[in-house]
């Protein structure tokens, strides 16, 4: 009971220290609010009200079809311009795209030649330019093809395949971006907060006070693990409910409680990693460098950014030793596909084993550093 009391009181002390650290509080709020929102909406899937200026040198039926094909809500009504207005308009940010249809465009099409249409893109407007150029190419190709066929219509093959998308029928990328950002932020902040908590003890000189008290390194470590893990778990839960579900209107298919349980096991492993880094680093800048060296590979190679199936087999096998791999798998299974405990229990077991190993290694390193 005395040990449990020490762990509880030390954990409360860590929560109070975090409360008086505005930089870390701002990092938590920014990551789980602004970071999640920007990941979901930063890169649009389609252009929206993109401005376009058109130089139509041909003034033919074919060129008119192309110009009239740019419609709302993807593009604003095309503005007729001349060559002097093209560069000036893009420099001033008036047009995101400019289109130059050359003279004799229709004549070359009917003669079987391949005339070139010039498309200029203002790449400083990244969100529109990223997808808009592809849409313009598709629009021009479709209109030219229908013009050469002399009719509008859709050819129906004798045998067609109809694809139905499960879990994300419209392939909305914001669903994937927002939830994945929450998953990645859980890993990042748990490592940062626990490592910073240990370094803060050294910088403030309170570590010496703890050493002269009847407190064991085990109690010091567990107090930091449960307190910082609780902060990240609560922040992630609030972000999933208010930002992902309420604000972004992204549906959660699986059990929210099961996801939080899996996140708690993952936090057991990542907070132990943070303690280990805190024993290696002697200052916050050193801790930041250590986290950069390991956090980015963990997030990229664990399947949080690209599917693990696209990676070499050797990398897939090596990353099975990382807790992030199993956490990403169980999180995506629960939140995207509505998986139950009977499906994700192997990942939960792996997180328990990996977390226990990391905890023992970090505790051994903490005892050596305190001695």
Automatic annotation (TrEMBL):
<protein>
    <submittedName>
        <fullName>ABC transporter permease</fullName>
    </submittedName>
</protein>
<dbReference type="Pfam" id="PF12698">
    <property type="entry name" value="ABC2_membrane_3"/>
</dbReference>
<dbReference type="GO" id="GO:0140359">
    <property type="term" value="F:ABC-type transporter activity"/>
</dbReference>
<feature type="transmembrane region" description="Helical">
    <location>
        <begin position="287"/>
        <end position="305"/>
    </location>
</feature>
<comment type="similarity">
    <text>Belongs to the ABC-2 integral membrane protein family.</text>
</comment>
<dbReference type="GO" id="GO:0005886">
    <property type="term" value="C:plasma membrane"/>
</dbReference>
<keyword id="KW-1003">Cell membrane</keyword>
<feature type="transmembrane region" description="Helical">
    <location>
        <begin position="344"/>
        <end position="363"/>
    </location>
</feature>
<keyword id="KW-0813">Transport</keyword>
<feature type="transmembrane region" description="Helical">
    <location>
        <begin position="225"/>
        <end position="244"/>
    </location>
</feature>
<dbReference type="InterPro" id="IPR047817">
    <property type="entry name" value="ABC2_TM_bact-type"/>
</dbReference>
<keyword id="KW-1133">Transmembrane helix</keyword>
<dbReference type="InterPro" id="IPR013525">
    <property type="entry name" value="ABC2_TM"/>
</dbReference>
<dbReference type="InterPro" id="IPR051449">
    <property type="entry name" value="ABC-2_transporter_component"/>
</dbReference>
<feature type="transmembrane region" description="Helical">
    <location>
        <begin position="256"/>
        <end position="280"/>
    </location>
</feature>
<keyword id="KW-0812">Transmembrane</keyword>
<feature type="transmembrane region" description="Helical">
    <location>
        <begin position="23"/>
        <end position="43"/>
    </location>
</feature>
<feature type="domain" description="ABC transmembrane type-2">
    <location>
        <begin position="133"/>
        <end position="369"/>
    </location>
</feature>
<keyword id="KW-0472">Membrane</keyword>
């Amino acid at each position: 009971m005395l040990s449990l009391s020490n762990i509880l009181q030390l954990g409360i002390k860590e929560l109070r220290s975090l409360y008086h650290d505005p930089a870390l509080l701002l990092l938590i709020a920014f990551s789980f609010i602004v970071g999640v929102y920007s990941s979901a909406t930063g890169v649009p899937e389609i252009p929206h009200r993109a401005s376009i200026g058109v130089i139509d040198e041909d003034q033919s039926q074919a060129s008119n079809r192309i110009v009239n094909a740019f419609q709302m809500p993807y593009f604003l009504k095309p503005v007729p311009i001349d060559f002097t207005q093209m560069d000036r308009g893009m420099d001033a940010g008036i047009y995101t795209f400019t289109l130059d249809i050359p003279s004799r465009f229709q004549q070359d099409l009917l003669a079987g030649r391949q005339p070139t249409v010039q498309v200029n893109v203002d790449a400083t407007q990244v969100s529109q330019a990223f997808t808009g150029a592809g849409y313009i190419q598709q629009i021009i190709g479709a209109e030219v093809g229908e013009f050469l066929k002399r009719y509008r219509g859709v050819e129906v093959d004798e045998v067609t395949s109809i694809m139905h998308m499960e879990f994300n029928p419209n392939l909305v990328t914001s669903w994937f971006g927002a939830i994945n950002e929450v998953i990645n932020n859980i890993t990042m902040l748990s490592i940062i907060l626990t490592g910073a908590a240990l370094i803060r003890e050294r910088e403030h000189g309170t570590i010496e006070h703890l050493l002269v008290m009847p407190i064991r390194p085990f109690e010091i470590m567990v107090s930091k693990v449960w307190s910082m893990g609780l902060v990240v778990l609560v922040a992630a839960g609030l972000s999933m409910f208010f930002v992902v579900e309420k604000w972004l209107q992204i549906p959660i298919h699986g059990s929210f409680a099961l996801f939080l349980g899996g996140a708690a096991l993952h936090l057991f492993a990542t907070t132990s990693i943070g303690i280990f880094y805190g024993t290696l680093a002697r200052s916050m800048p050193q801790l930041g460098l250590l986290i950069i060296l390991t956090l980015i590979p963990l997030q990229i190679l664990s399947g949080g950014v690209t599917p693990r199936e696209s990676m070499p087999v050797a990398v897939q096998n090596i990353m099975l030793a990382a807790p992030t791999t199993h956490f990403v798998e169980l999180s995506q299974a629960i939140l995207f596909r509505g998986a139950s405990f009977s499906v994700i229990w192997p990942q939960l077991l792996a997180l328990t084993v990996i977390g226990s190993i990391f905890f023992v290694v970090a505790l051994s390193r903490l005892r050596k550093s305190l001695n």
